[in-house]
Amino acid sequence: MSYAANFGVTLTQHVLHRQALHPNARGQFSQLITQIGVAAKLISAQVRRAGLIEIWGATGDENVQGEEVQKLDRIANDTLKEVLIQSGCVSALASEEEDEFISVPSALLGDYVVAFDPLDGSSNIDSSVSIGTIFAIYHRRSIRESSVNDVLRPGYEQVGAGYVMYGSSTVMVYTAGRTVDCFTLDPSCGEFFLTRSDLKYSEKTHVLSINECNIPYWPTWVKPFVKEIIDRNDEAHREITGRHIGSLVADFHRNLIKGGLYLYPEDRRTGRGKLRLLYECNPLAFIAEVAGGAASTGRGRILEVMPEDLHQRVGLIIGPKADVALAEAFAREAAKAEA
User: SS3 of 274, please?
Assistant: First the structure.
């Protein structure tokens, strides 16, 4: 039985309506979002069938970060590349799974550049934990042949961003800078329907997402900051609860819905973070800011970091504005004490 009629607005209708608000729009952004939706449906179908058709597990290869490539990683990466290149909407792509940026044939050149993590949380695939796709969209810079400079740019230049989560249902969340809207895939008809509109972060943190097993590797400011958050609980009232899934896209989605703060700080041994600036932090930071939240490296706004290479990693603190600012204050005080 399909409940599609109760949902009403499809993803395609939604993006076309937004396009109509801009009289000079050529429609390529709308087409690009719908094509990302097509890729998401194809990837979702493979995720659902993974155990049945034996596409769980690793390929035996390593990606540019030295991580094991999962079979579904490769399927998702190839699917996004093929769909986006054939869309005629992009001039260049960058993927977490690729060493270099991807140029598009001149006959198919479009107006946009897309950076994406094809399958975030892929180490959780064999455990049937929620995983997802994350993407960032920029206007094309190069007039003719694309270069790496089309991709290496600060996050505030994004014109759109989003993610798809493959969990108990397949949801797609995207923003073009005005609102953050959530769509759910109805498998009975193969269409995304609008299920949550104009998502906003809670002003208060209710969920704390951090891997406490990394305490030995945290910068000195993190432990007292986390204690201050947890100490908001008392015998009469529990304000904070802990939830950490281990798939960034799933943790972020839950926190956006329920009001949560996510931390993956820099490793004090190396001075760098684990998460990729271009493929994970920038798009989620853009979404968070549009939804009234904030995102920081601990030293400053994520969206102002100038990327130095395609696979740069940074620390990430993302969630309600006040607590992201509080984390930055703790980091500044620790830096002064250690200077």
Answer: coil
Residue 186 dihedral angles phi and psi, to the nearest 5°: -90, 105
Give CA–CA dist 114/80, Å, rounded: 10
Q: Which two tokens stand for residue 231?
A: 């100490």
* CATH number given to 207-338: 3.40.190.80
Percentages helix, strand, coil for the chain, rounded to the nearest 5?
Answer: 40, 25, 35
Place of tokens 């035996």: 60
Per-residue model confidence (pLDDT) at position 124? 77
- 2, exposed or middle or buried, with CB in 10 Å at 0-12, 13-18, 19+? exposed
Strand pairing report for 207-209 and 180-186: unpaired
The dihedral region occupied by 13, where left means phi > 0, alpha psi between -120 and 50, and beta the remainder, is alpha
- Residue 208 contacts residue 201 (beta carbons within 8 Å): no
Phi-psi region of 149 (alpha: psi -120 to 50; beta: other; left: phi over 0): alpha
pLDDT at res. 5: 43
Q: What is the DSSP string of 10-69?
A: BHHHHHHHHHHTSTT--SHHHHHHHHHHHHHHHHHHHHHHTTTTT--SEEEEE-TTSPEE
Q: Do domains 4-196 and 207-338 have the same CATH topology?
A: no
Q: How far, in Å, CA of 296 to CA of 150, rounded?
A: 23
Q: Which fold has domain 4-196?
A: Fructose-1,6-Bisphosphatase; Chain A, domain 1 (3.30.540)
What ranges do the domains of the chain cover?
A: 4-196, 207-338
Low-confidence spans in the chain with pLDDT less than 50: 1-5, 52-53, 56-57, 59-60
Pinpoint the alpha helices (H) of 213-320: 222-230, 248-258, 282-290
Instruction: Give the pLDDT score at 283.
Output: 98
- Please tell me whether the overall predicted TM-score, pTM, comes out greater than 0.70 for this model: yes
